[in-house]
Automatic annotation (TrEMBL):
Keywords: Membrane, Transmembrane, Transmembrane helix. The chain crosses the membrane at residues 12-32, 38-62, 74-101. This is Peptidase MA-like domain-containing protein.
Length: 375
């Protein structure tokens, strides 16, 4: 009975220790600089693991004379063992989040943004994780530049097309952002938009870029049209690759500015990607249903409006096209750099352009409608 009481007592105190340790470290890491947080979490992981190894050694030696601080004997050793397990789990958790933030998301996050990232593993996830390894199975592989292309034998004729598109995308994005330190990325070809949807659950889309995994996926609308360079298949295919590659390059550039990737609102991300994807395309203005850019900041905002039949891609394209026409292509880079200086997009946008985002909404719509009336 005494052993049972010791076990339940240790379980209770272990749970209590877990909660207290988690809350204390959470509060600490929220107010600390992310680089300092990362270093501290590494030290804590090493310390907790060392204590755990010490406990294992003491158990093996059956050290009945064990004495550590106020913990004594076998029961004290068991208690310390439970505490080290708890502390190791908590510190490894915080280390993984801090490492992700420092390497993938930029250093200048607000307390609220860091809190959301720390809480992310505890949120209920309604989506099924995408199995990219399954997509790559039985595919042939071709490397070009920093891109590894996954394709089937029937799709081999697309390789010269893809390589030409990647050259163009590299040239255009280098003009917009300057030289960017490239990662190695994977480009997965999907036999159709239906195949892409089945594999990813993405609705009504021809492509995607998965930032954490550095993966681009593109659907083949019509293989024969693309290979023979016929419209509209060749246009959709090439434009989609350029669009998704621009997402990769833009996010890489944003990270190099030590900015949280989504400090830049999604309408700007998508507008720049559409601008590159539609580059040198004669794009006639026509009426469309728009919404305020305040409603297109996050991914959830974007998906909600996109599926409500707002033409959010076209709207964002027109806005970026307006900026380029009035300020030049370098303005895209300047807006991001000014945002990095103040860690706020709206303020950085105004500092770069001299107008507000609200002014942009009014100005580009006015120009778009004027162009429609003239035609």
């Amino acid at each position: 009975m005494k052993i049972v009481n010791v076990i339940f007592t240790n379980l209770f105190y272990s749970f209590l220790s877990f909660i207290m340790t988690f809350v204390i470290l959470l509060a600490l890491f929220l107010i600390m600089n992310i680089q300092v947080s990362l270093i501290l979490s590494i030290i804590m992981v090493l310390l907790s693991f060392s204590l755990f190894c010490f406990c294992i050694y003491s158990f093996v030696c059956i050290n009945r004379n064990f004495h550590f601080l106020f913990l004594k004997g076998i029961s004290g050793l068991v208690s310390l063992g439970c505490l080290t397990v708890v502390f190791t789990i908590v510190t490894v958790f915080f280390f993984s989040i801090n490492f992700m933030i420092s390497t993938e998301l930029g250093k200048n996050l607000t307390i609220e943004e860091k809190f959301e990232l720390y809480m992310l593993p505890f949120q209920e996830d309604q989506t099924t994780p995408t199995d990219y390894n399954a997509m790559k199975e039985n595919k042939l592989i071709q490397s070009y530049r920093n891109v590894t292309i996954y394709y089937t034998q029937q799709e081999k004729e697309l390789l010269p097309v893809i390589e030409g598109v990647l050259d163009k995308a590299d040239s255009l994005t280098t003009r917009l952002f300057g030289t960017v330190n490239d990662n190695n990325i994977d480009l997965i070809l999907h036999a159709s938009s239906e195949d892409l949807y089945e594999r990813t659950s993405l609705i009504e889309t021809m492509g995607y870029f998965d930032d954490p995994n550095d993966i681009v996926g593109v659907a083949i609308s019509d293989l024969d049209e693309i290979v023979s360079d016929q419209m509209p298949g060749t246009f959709y295919f090439q434009s989609t690759i350029m669009h998704e590659y621009t997402h990769y390059r833009l996010q890489a550039f944003i990270k190099e500015q030590d900015l949280f990737v989504y400090r830049i609102p999604l309408w700007f991300h998508e507008g720049v990607a559409e601008f590159v994807g539609m580059y040198d395309v004669a794009h006639r203005y026509y009426p469309f249903q728009e919404t305020s850019f305040e409603n297109l900041v996050t991914h959830d905002d974007w998906e909600k409006k996109r599926l409500e039949d707002y033409d959010v891609y076209l709207q964002s394209y027109y806005a970026i096209d307006y900026l380029v026409n009035h300020y030049g292509e370098k303005m895209i880079k300047t807006i991001i750099e000014e945002t990095a200086k103040v860690n706020d997009f709206n303020e950085g946008f105004t500092n770069a352009t001299g107008i507000s985002v609200k002014d942009l909404e009014t100005n580009y719509l006015k120009e778009a409608r004027q162009s429609i009336e003239e035609k």
